[in-house]
Amino acid sequence: MSLFISGGTPLCGEIAVHGAKNSVLPVLAATILHPGISVIENCPDLSDVHSAISILRHLGCRVQREGTRVTVDATELCCCNIPDSLMREMRSSVIFLGAILARAGCAEMYFPGGCELGNRPIDLHLSALRELGAVIEEEGGRICCNAPSLVAREINLCFPSVGATENIMLAASRAAGVTRIRNAAREPEIEDLARFLRSMGISVHGAGGSVIEVECSQKTKDPMFSVMPDRIVAATYLIGVAMTGGEALVTKLVPEQIAPITSLLRESGCNVTVEKDRIFLKATKTLRPCQTVRTMPYPGFPTDAQAPMMAYATQCDGTSIFVENIFDNRYRHVCELIRLGANIKVEGRVAVVEGKNELHGARVSATDLRGGAALVLAALCAEGESRIDEVCHIDRGYESIESNFSKLGAKIVRREG
Ligand code: EPZ
Question: How many angstroms does the Cα of residue 72 sit away from the middle of ligand 1?
């Protein structure tokens, strides 16, 4: 499947943001901890969510979906392994490791392997689980874990890894005592996972800060939970409105979670009005450049918004500099943006965008999830017709991107090549 986009129309109107991919994935993994029924509302319809549900079903859970409500019955688990085929479908399946280990006392999966963003090591996950008492053998790409009993520890993360923090939280829920995580990731999705665990009866304190405490809880209760809005999707919509010269209201978001993005849009001249759960943005004709965008762990500028913001920078008058500090190889969208007429140079972790570029329609290919979203944004600004292949990358994290952008007036359709 490909997206066919006719550029040049300002995005205008109103759009609501769907549930957060990077919250619902660890929450779905966490349902394994409770031998009962978990109800999750505001679950987005994404291919990564389908993959996570396939893993839950493989493990023996019964999963039902009605609209945005997902019900997981994890009363019976029939196995504790994730086959390579399911691991390949979604690299972040490693997030199931801590939960399976906590529930079953054993877990087996494969190394996630590299992905579009470069190497995806899981050394921080494995060393933390070993500290909690897991015996982990690595052979031929396979990870075999045994933990008849997990014991609470104080774990110091050398880097505030989001996935490692989540895996430790899930394993710690069955580690005797109180586990303390220092230098924990502070992303809002971590707070959402803590909220879900508390709704299950597991005591978690400090999420959102650098020190998180999780108390062992053998008894859990049926949780009812609603997933937070996706802050990166919200940022993508606002960036799209700003760079196409439109004006729109984006609802169902948490403004402070995207403050790094809205402050850049305001600095470059857009009129940004923030209310409780919505943001109104009116673009300005001439956009000032972004200066320097350095990706950092939360609450710094999010690495997932780097590619969409780079597309935006092509429409700004002047030089914008990007420094990608989180992933080794997160500039694969650059050569595709150049095919659309962007003027970008990359040197290691630094990318320099010389705007404003008059973009023109071209045939390009999505390289990864956020890089693909950046290509959609650039094509919406380009003169003429563009075609974006490999849309499967975009579908991992954006619900029907073509129908959502069409709601804002974009000329975009999905069809076979
Ligand atoms: C999560 O990935 C998100 N994925 C990513 O979103 C996001 O970009 C990232 O956090 C940073 O915010 C999900 O939540 C499913 P990390 P994760 O562990 O957990 C290195 C998207 O587009 N590292 O914080 O993998 C790692 O290689 C995706 O929605 C180790 O070296 O991120 C990377 O360079 C992309 N060893 C850096 O840390 C480890 O054991 C950040 O990784 C773990 C990570």
Answer: 26
